[in-house]
Amino acid sequence: MSGGATVVCAYSEVGHACLDTLLRIGADVRLVVTHRDAPGETVWFASVAERARAAGVPVIEPDDVNAPDAVEAITAAQPDLLYSFYFRQMIRPRILEIPRLGALNLHGSLLPRYRGRAPVNWVLVHGEKESGVTLHYMDAKPDHGDVVGRRAVTIERDDTALSLTRKLAGAGRELLAEMHPRLLAGSAPREPQDHSGSSYFGGRKPADGEIDWSQPAEKIRNLVRAVSEPWPGAFSFLDGHKLLVWWAETRPGEGGTPGEVRIGDDGLPRVATGDGALELTRYAFADDGPNLENGDRLG
After folding, report:
1. Is residue 293 included in any domain, yes or no?
2. What is the mean pLDDT of residues 106-124?
3. Cys-Cys with 282: which of 5, 69, 146, 246 at CB 3.0–4.6 Å?
4. How far is residue 111's CA from residue 108's CA, in Å, rounded to a whole number?
5. Which residues, 6 or more positions from 48, have their beta carbon under 8 angstroms from its beta carbon?
6. Looking at residue 38, which CATH number applies to its domain?
7. Cβ-based neighbours of 266, under 8 Å, separated by 6 or more
8. Whether residue 1 has pLDDT greater than 50
9. pLDDT tens-digit readout, 156-195
């Protein structure tokens, strides 16, 4: 391989895994661009900045990657390739034009499906059985450019956003280790996306975790696992007290008024839904809430 100077824009678990992979395969990483941890955010993932500094790679943490100082630093690195791995800012065309061989993003879904924000959560909310990662060229539209490669992962019924993220990190490692040398050698595939089959989802907020008990039990369970720890959690209310549901199991055939609580023989609360009941196997009030009792009504 000739050349190979690389700039990496990265954050979070997948960002750390992909940067680590590039360093392990001997990539010439000249600069890492990352984010400062947001105040109040639960930081459960390894630090991109620490991994870069341990390898002697310069790190910048701009408030805006498209600001002149950041653009100047990226330009000065003279990259052949620029990667974005779970970087949270939209990288504008001015930067995408800098690397000689192109700028690529690793997206956490099998594009063109689930473009946009929080794909790991959305695929679980929708009960998908498969997801994966896609390495693609970046252009002016998010998750829109030509595809270099994909790696699929199976979603098990008990996968959470955390376990699925770790699967995606492993898939990203494999895909990047294969495609980085091929990109430098000019032998990597390049396939236009089928935009007619695309779907797009926006970002998610903690408030999106509120449970609608009129929904079927399986759908509510999917929400629970999509936002369980270390995400903010699915929740409901009892007399103004916020109840966080971290894990639950469906109990088909059991009915009642949606939101109504029945305590099972095992002592666990079962909440009636629009179809079946949901047994709350791990839950907690956010404050000093009361114990759940027969006949309580959540909502």
Report:
1. no
2. 98
3. 246
4. 9
5. 10, 11, 12, 15, 16, 19, 32, 34
6. 3.40.50.170
7. none
8. no
9. 999 999 999 999 999 999 999 999 999 999 999 999 999 9
CB 178 within 8 A of CB 18: no
What are the tokens at 120?
A: 């790991």
CATH code: domain of residue 256: 3.10.25.10
User: In the prediction, which pLDDT does 128 show?
Assistant: 98
pTM: 0.95
Tens digits of residue pLDDT in 24-75 = 999 999 999 999 998 888 899 999 999 999 999 999 999 999 999 999 999 9
Total structural domains within the chain: 2
